[in-house]
Specification:
4-stranded antiparallel β-sheet, 3 helices
């Protein structure tokens, strides 16, 4: 394991993880993937606001897409949707018999 903060990097074992993490070091496994973030990190407020605004926008898009999906599913399940589909296929079959 490695503890990394800024330009400092230390090789540590599992017993030292909490010590370094409490002091703001990110803990990475041997392959370099972050397994624990250091305590006390902060995000600038303007970045936070951007993320919150994006989250709200995406939630609205999800709701719109759910409504569209529900409408499509409902239309496919309705008896009129089935008749329209059957009528089209029957008409095509009758047209080929007449010709």
């Amino acid at each position: 394991m490695k503890a990394e903060k800024g330009n400092r990097e230390y090789s540590i074992d599992g017993n030292q993880q909490k010590f370094y993490q409490d002091r703001g070091f990110d803990i990475k496994n041997d392959s370099g993937k972050v397994i624990a973030y250091g305590r006390g990190k902060r995000v600038p407020y303007d970045e936070y606001e951007k993320v919150i605004a994006q989250k709200k926008e995406l939630e609205e898009q999800v709701e719109k897409l759910k409504k569209r999906l529900d409408a499509v599913v409902k239309k496919q399940k309705s008896p009129q949707g089935e008749k329209a589909e059957k009528g089209t296929s029957t008409d095509a079959g009758e047209a080929s018999k007449k010709g």
